[in-house]
Amino acid sequence: MNEVSDHLDHGLQIVFVGFNPSPKSGELGHHYANPRNHFWKLLYESGLTPRLYAPNEDGDLLKLGYGFTNIVSRPTRGVDDITREEYRVGREILREKLEYYRPQITCFVGKGVYQEFTKQSSISWGFQPQSFVDGVHEFVAPSSSGLVRMPMSDIIAIYQQLGEFIQNASQ
After folding, report:
1. Neighbour order of strands in the sheet with 126-127
2. Which residues belong to any copy of the Uracil-DNA glycosylase-like domain (predicted)?
3. Does a structural domain hold residue 6?
4. Structural domains counted in the chain
5. Contact (CB, 8 A) for 10 and 101
6. Which residues contact 33 (CB under 8 A, 6 or more apart)?
7. Nearest to 115 by CA among 103, 101, 105, 128
8. 127: β partners
9. Catalytic pick from 31, 34, 37, 38?
10. Which member of 69, 74, 146, 168 has the greatest number of CB atoms within 10 A?
11. At 117, is the secondary structure helix, strand, or coil?
């Protein structure tokens, strides 16, 4: 399966970081392409995007100030298929990307992604009190996977905090 290209640039408001691409994302070459994934709906319903985008428009979100990457670039069926070595290497590469591009916010899509990046075990939703990349706010949001058992309204409320932060920062 093919890797999914990052969508990164300098001056981004948010970079969304996932575990790794799904097989469907690898097949189509776009982030969050599995039809059971709620990512694009979450962005729209939380007010982060003005309309509902499709996975094949992921590159267009750079114009809105949003980028995409993963802690591991290899597509797999699930996180259990990612090796410890892939996480170790992925942590280093992700840190380098974030230090180079310096987005305003790094949004980790799932507590597990943030745990793998920081090696912390006690994590709350939302902005984190300590940043592991200087000058970059770190935010932990629920996974957008269709397997998540949290009510959609609760997930949307957490994602809305990102938009509120951006709006307040631009005033």
Report:
1. 66-70, 14-18, 105-109, 137-141, 126-127
2. 8-151
3. no
4. 1
5. yes
6. 21, 22, 24, 25, 27, 55, 56
7. 128
8. 139
9. 31
10. 69
11. helix
- pLDDT value for 156: 96
**With contact defined as beta carbons under 8 Å apart, do 15 and 71 qualify?**
no
Tell how many helices (H) and how many strands (E) occur in the chain: 5, 5
Q: How far is CA 112 from CA 11, 35, 54, 89, in A?
A: 26, 21, 25, 16
Q: What is the residue type of 26? A: G
Domain range for 30:
14-169
Task: Please check whether residue 41 lies inside any domain of the structure.
Answer: yes
75 pLDDT above the threshold of 90: no
Q: Which amino acid is at 23?
A: P
In the prediction, which pLDDT does 3 show?
87
**Gap between the Cα atoms of 13 and 43, Å rounded:** 14
Q: Which residues contact 9 (CB under 8 A, 6 or more apart)?
A: 62, 67, 101
Phi then psi for residue 126, to 5 deg, are: 95, -160
20 is catalytic: yes
70 given a catalytic annotation? no
Please report, for the domain that includes residue 147, its CATH number: 3.40.470.10
Catalytic residue among 7, 20, 30, 37: 20
Residues of the chain with pLDDT > 70, as a percent, come to 99
Query: Which residues, in sequence order, are bridge partners of residue 14?
Result: 66, 105
